[in-house]
């Protein structure tokens, strides 16, 4: 049976599985949120499909995205990462990932859960959008701009409004599956009973 999906996904089984099983599902686990924030930063200027194909290599290269380990990376580790063909070998992005790990730990040490901090930008619950077409979906929103400002204030980099909105979409802070996609209702059902709210 043919399923209607969002227009951005291609027919690669890896991409289909990501769209069908992950994208738009609410995530509250700190480690997973950290991984997605770093991967979205790595995506800057590239396609998510490019990063998704490299995700396993990123997990190996960045110690399973353990922020405590990543925060301790030194120049030798940076040099090693820049020789790793499995990731995006961009010096600014690699250094930003390390700096973001340190900022993440600072956020934790402040007594605040990074998950709670990030989810505050949608009021602690997913926002249910109702976009009929891919072209209707914005690249950024006031919430993603507010997230950018707050993250930069904490020392994060590669966290512009577009990156933050892509992150919010990916981790289910917003349901941006188009309404004709079979996942739109399914992701909506995930939020029901947990404060799922429509935007004003």
Q: What can you tell me about this protein's structure?
A:
The protein is built from ten helices and two strands; from the N terminus they run αααααααβααβα. The protein is mostly helical and 200 residues long. It has one domain: Endonuclease III, domain 1. A two-stranded parallel ribbon has the order 1-2. The longest helix is centred in the middle third of the chain and has 19 residues.
Using the 3D structure, state the CATH architecture: Orthogonal Bundle
User: What proportion of the residues form beta strands (DSSP E)?
Assistant: under 5%
H and E string: HHHHHHHEHHEH
Number of strands: 2
Which percent range fits the helix content? 40-55%
Biggest sheet: strand arrangement: 1-2
For this structure, what is the CATH class? Mainly Alpha
User: Largest sheet at a glance?
Assistant: 2 strands, parallel
Mean pLDDT: 92
| Class by SSE composition | mainly alpha
